[in-house]
Specification:
The structure is a homodimer. Chain A is mainly alpha-helical. Chain A has a single domain, classed as TrpR-like (Trp Operon Repressor, Chain A, Orthogonal Bundle). The first copy, chain A, has six helices and no strands. The first copy, chain A, binds a DNA duplex through helix 3, helix 4 and helix 5.
DNA sequence: TGTTTTGTTCTTGTCAATAGAAACAAGGAT
DNA sequence: ATCCTTGTTTCTATTGACAAGAACAAAACA
């Protein structure tokens, strides 16, 4: 079992609260911030904001947004599925 | 709800397999590699290797190992608990 | 007390992700 | 056909995590 797979296994068994603490322990604050921004970009893409709107609102570069768009295109639909689920909850 | 908390919430509901795919979608390969190494450092610290042994074996700097050791000292014991559980499974 | 081992911090330089801005590509609307 | 909007890529510079090694601190042990 690879290390990253072991991590995935562990995460799948943890509570939301524990995961939150764990992420703050194993990642730096700036990494947390980067990860949050990536996630927010993906969500906004799912809500059909234009890339320029997203870049402006989140203070990120256009290239980063485009990268997020690629994830949604090329992915096995996991991320795509997730943001759709989030959207339907509102 | 913050973005990172939402991420924690989502992860807590996902299967190991989906988490693995998701991590590969939202992180770059070098980030995955970094994360894996941090996890491995934590595990080896839990097995009482010296920091110099760990640095040599994993080809990382001593300072990085020390950083891992700090996590285990200052943490709310989440990470510490995790690596202890891992150890007991063997 | 002095020595050795181990943990921690510091300095210099490297590398990957990124911002910012511009350029380019592709469609749509007029 | 010509704009105009939007998505994509490229360029340069910045930033943070990191390696390598040295220096320093602390603890164990003789």
């Amino acid at each position: 079992m690879t290390d990253i797979k072991e991590l995935a296994n562990i995460l799948s068994k943890m509570s939301e609260k524990d995961i939150l603490v764990f992420l703050h322990e194993i990642l730096t604050e700036s990494e947390i911030s980067d990860l949050s921004k990536r996630w927010r970009i993906l969500k906004m893409l799912g809500e059909n904001f234009t890339q320029r709107e997203i870049a402006n609102k989140l203070n990120v570069g256009l290239c980063k947004v485009t990268r997020g768009a690629k994830i949604l295109k090329n992915s096995n639909a996991i991320t795509l599925k997730l943001i759709k689920e989030i959207k339907n909850e509102h």
